[in-house]
Amino acid sequence: MKRKFSLTHFIVSMLRFDFERILTFGYISKHPHRQLIFGYLSYIVVGTLLLCLPFMTSTNVGFLDHIFSATSAVSTTGLSTVDVSSAYTFSGKLVILLLIQLGGLGYMTMSCFVMFSLTKHFTIIKKGIIAAEFTMPGGITAKNLVKSVVGFTFFFEVIGALLLYFLFADKGVENPVGTAIFHSVSAFCTAGFSTFSDSLMQFRDDWGVNLVVIVLSYAGAMGFIVMHDLWQKITTRGYKITFTSKVIVLVTLALSALATTQMFFFEPSLLQYPASERFLMSLFQSMSALTTVGFNTINIGGLIPITLLSLTMIMYFGASPSGTGGGLKTTTLTATMAFVKSKLGQNRDVTLFGRTLPTYRIDTALATFVLYTAVICLSSLILTATEDFDYLVILFESASALGTVGLSTGITPELSSEGKLVLIVVMFIGRVGVLTFGFSMLHRMKQRTTQITKQDDLAV
């Protein structure tokens, strides 16, 4: 007896068809962190191959530059060895935009969202990958987080695109629809790619464009945990904001204020502008470094050393967990500072704002802090050997690449092939390596918290 064809049978058949295995060239690992790394790597490989097609470029772009552009887009960095606005055609820019969107949403997020919408469940492996990619405090499940990621992403990007369309159209920008969509996605995903050759320098005094980009960037960088909390606070009576969100907002505001103040009062290149315009440029550039969005409205190469060092520190701290930004993360910074404070005070428990932090969270923060700092030191050391630039400029470039920021003093196109390869690796690590290492340590520490083991003494 023949089975009758139905839509349900078709959907089930399609779900059994493993698109993920095709995308990762047949590689499927039960270890979430390995799958996460290979998943992002597959995005870069596919993106590079697409960008190599003849109709994707309007000028001669080398293969290494295509790899650099694809890696920068997937890692939502924004550094580029070529002028994206002129080097790539509409098709090429569309590929870059798709890579930015995939990188901003995160590996497996969309497929998990579609799977849950159709079947109301995740596979164990997919749950593991989501847990490996996003930090989830108590009370927020993988299901809720995935729904929040997809929902808030498209909500902010659509609203941002509409607002930017009217602003760009009013300024007489060519193709305001496509330009608005591109910059809205790039801003929320904190990618920093622009279809303008000068980034957003021509809009340095435009409050409308600046404020829309600032809101999009902060929304993406502070993360989906904060967005989920705010939405629940608005829609659910008696809902309490999580401790994680409170820390994220507080630290983000504090770092933004400090960086903005430094640039407003002590950056000579901005003193020629009126106070209101100088404040807007200072706020935007500080926001751009902290959220790791990477847009610039001023000439970064013209900043004095103290301002470059200040921005380097801000890029080092970076955005927040479960967001689209990079960097060490604000929560990792606060947990590390809380640990140091507790040890200096000879306290056994590590507390932050009166809350005792779990041991495995502290271990994860310290491991991430050490690894992150080591990668910056090593990469800047290698670049110092391969490139002929001032060390501060190289350190700035390394911090921008690892933090997936995209700000540059202008040396990126002038890098040697060895230098480009170093930044490609660093950008990839910034997107998956530090997070993967941190969550791997978190998983191991969770398994050991219930075990009592004999430890060797070590004097440090």
TrEMBL record:
Keyword set includes Coiled coil: no
Keyword Transmembrane helix: yes
Keywords: Cell membrane, Ion transport, Membrane, Transmembrane, Transmembrane helix, Transport
One GO cellular component term noted in the UniProt record for this chain: plasma membrane
Stretches that traverse the bilayer: 37-56, 94-118, 149-168, 207-226, 247-266, 365-384, 391-409, 421-442
GO MF entries: monoatomic cation transmembrane transporter activity
Annotated membrane topology: Multi-pass membrane protein
Gene Ontology biological process terms from the UniProt entry: metal ion transport
Compartment(s): Cell membrane
Official protein name in the record: Potassium uptake protein KtrB
